[in-house]
Design a protein that fits this description.
The longest helix has 6 residues, at 32-37. The chain has helices at residues 32-37, 229-232, and strands spanning 2-9, 40-46, 52-57, 64-68, 73-76, 94-96, 102-105, 123-126, 134-137, 144-151, 156-162, 166-171, 177-182, 191-192, 198-202, 208-213, 218-221, 243-248, 254-258, 263-267, 272-277, 287-290, 295-300, 307-312, 317-323, 336-342, 346-351, 361-367. By secondary structure, the chain is mainly beta.
Length: 368
Amino acid sequence: MRIRRVRHHVLRDYTSRERLTDTEDVGREGDADRFNNFVAFTSLLPHPDGRLYCGVYCANTDVLHRFDPATGRFESLNYAAVAEEREVKIHRSLELASDGTIYGASACLFRCDQRLDSPGGSLFRIPAGTSRVEKLGIPAEHDYIQTITLDEARGLIYGQTYPCFRFFVHNLGTGETKDFGYLGSITHISALDDDGGFWGTWDCSAHWLFRYDPDVGEITWFRHSLPNARQDSNIMYPAAGPVDCMINGGDGYLYVGTCGGSLCRIDPRTAEVAYLGKPSPSRRLPGLLVWKDSLLLGCSGDQEGGNLFAYDRETNAFHHLGPIVDSETGLKLYRVHDLRLMGENLAYVAETDVPKRSGYLWECELEI
């Protein structure tokens, strides 16, 4: 197994001699080029229509696009037409329903002194077969939504917010939201177990695990976390927890990539956590998905670049597929934010937080 070919796709480009941070205010009357063209890829969603939906950061609120692998072209879905000025990002918040409807949520980047003047992040949907963005409402006033998880069977959307780390459950049928308030910790992305339980982290120091049971509407607060939870927290941003990625493995377990770059497994029946290994020396493991047979496909990498690997759940072996470097230009990916597959062997990686240029969408053709 290896990466056969890598290339990058440019949505819009902005370069600078100075180090960029997407948390700075960028006004239309300041640097218009940067305001419109400094982008970072933050959320990816393959769709049955054959296209890849991309949530991005951009100060001008044009934050939702779709990419056609057949043509290599991007198309804006014009989120800016329904956005308010603080909705500058779709973080890890794109989910797909079985009928093709896309659910999403908007995120922000602002100073705390702007929080009470901000309405809060919106839940939205794109009905199947359309390009129309429909807002469903603001579930957590003043705070914006970093990540959502869809429970289609129960008609629920789980969300976690920023800058105040609130946890909420939104009922799509009634439009009602149950807000559990500040939990002190946040995951980059969470997952549901086979019984529909939502798993996350709480407590700003220990970052312990919790499970929300939708059938009784209550949280079980555990007093343990992932291995090295304290060391692996505060890496994404201050007070963020150790969970970089969480998926349901389809085998009864939840699999977790940590911000320290390790792979772990949670048994939802007992809440027992097992350490499976560390696929590379890098921090961050934000990309993880079920691949062929017993394999998981993962992507790790922080400021030093990205690497793809496979983990065999039968043999407990890691297989290193290679670094993410453009096969023609030699350009190296900077920091990984999401990973998705189109078909069986075409992986796409979202790149973010690049110091002196926009982030790109990276395409990796895999060979088995």
